[in-house]
Specification:
The chain is of the alpha/beta class and about 290 residues long. It is about 35% helix and about 20% strand. The protein binds glutamine.
Length: about 290
């Protein structure tokens, strides 16, 4: 870290100012937030504590750990993999490079799932491609009598999801199954709600993804096949028998996929496509459908 004038006394304030500037110059999108999260992680402090203790001088050992994290961040590693945790909806989730980092976009799906489940007694929920378990665990945590089945093709992801279920006290109501989409489900299983944030990046989009996503997050959690729609086709084709009459399907989509995904679901006679929900950036983010036959 040698290209900016360096203060002689490394207070929290000076470290944050220097690092924010350094990260910005390296093209990091949210330099101040990243610097705060990583310094807070090293020191075991939250953001408020950092701010009210601006004059404190972290030890040389802590500064060395911080510097190592900053270098890895500049190398493209997502902040959540460096700290091992990401807040999502109302809870902190463990994340490792085996799982996609939970995104605020997906909170739209969770809020709708919880609203739909609210009047139902002991509803059964299926989460396809659970990853960190952020959807499954959030739903189970908010709807105390829900039983959730969470499927993933990655055993390593399921290990992370199971730890998140345990951490948030819902392990007794979330069942984890290893396998491809519907394959591991018992015959005759039927759900009130099926949710998924499937891989939906199209092949031609990979080159344009931010490097921290493209080179660090699991390709299997992102790759939606040649046009990005593979999983929507497979879910649409297979979900019918697993939905109870009147049951709901909620699928996260890429912001440009609304028409395509609505068409894929609309091609199934047993599904009635409902409203598309927008995320906090007002982008189309969740396509909904109801089981009608
Ligand atoms: N929203 C993610 C991204 O933009 C993609 C997630 C997914 O494919 N389900 O990188």
């Amino acid at each position: 870290m040698a290209d900016a004038p360096q203060p002689t006394v490394w207070t929290i304030k000076a470290l944050l100012a220097w690092t924010t500037d350094f990260l910005a110059k390296k093209g990091i999108d949210s330099p101040r937030a990243d610097a705060q999260i990583l310094l807070g992680h090293v020191l075991g402090y939250d953001k408020t504590y950092l701010t009210v203790n601006f004059a404190e001088q972290p030890s040389e050992a802590d500064r060395a750990r911080f510097k190592d994290l900053i270098q890895r961040r500049v190398g493209g590693c997502p902040v959540a993999y460096l700290t091992g945790v990401r807040d999502f909806y109302l809870l902190p989730f463990e994340v490792t490079p085996a799982v996609l980092v939970p995104r605020p976009d997906t909170e739209t799906l969770v809020a709708e799932a919880i609203a739909f489940l609210k009047p139902l007694a002991a509803p059964a929920v299926l989460d396809l491609g659970t990853g960190s378990g952020c959807i499954a665990v959030s739903v189970a945590h908010q709807k105390k009598d829900a039983r959730v089945t969470a499927v993933d093709a990655s055993a390593d992801a399921l290990d992370v999801a199971k730890r998140n279920a345990t951490r948030h006290g819902v392990a007794d109501r979330v069942e984890f199954l290893h396998g491809d989409l519907f394959a591991p489900l018992p015959a005759g299983a039927a759900f009130d709600l099926v949710v998924s944030n499937p891989p939906y990046i199209a092949q031609h989009e990979f080159a344009g993804l931010p490097t921290d996503v493209r080179d660090h997050e699991p390709r299997t959690a992102l790759d939606g096949g040649p046009d990005g729609l593979d999983f929507y086709r497979r879910i649409a084709a297979g979900v019918g028998p697993f939905l109870k009459p009147g049951g709901r399907l909620l699928l996260e989509i890429g912001a440009t996929q609304e028409a395509d995904v609505r068409a894929v679901l609309g091609g199934r006679p047993e599904l009635e496509v409902g409203p598309t929900l927008k995320d906090l950036a007002r982008l189309p983010r969740v396509v909904t459908a109801k089981k009608v036959l």
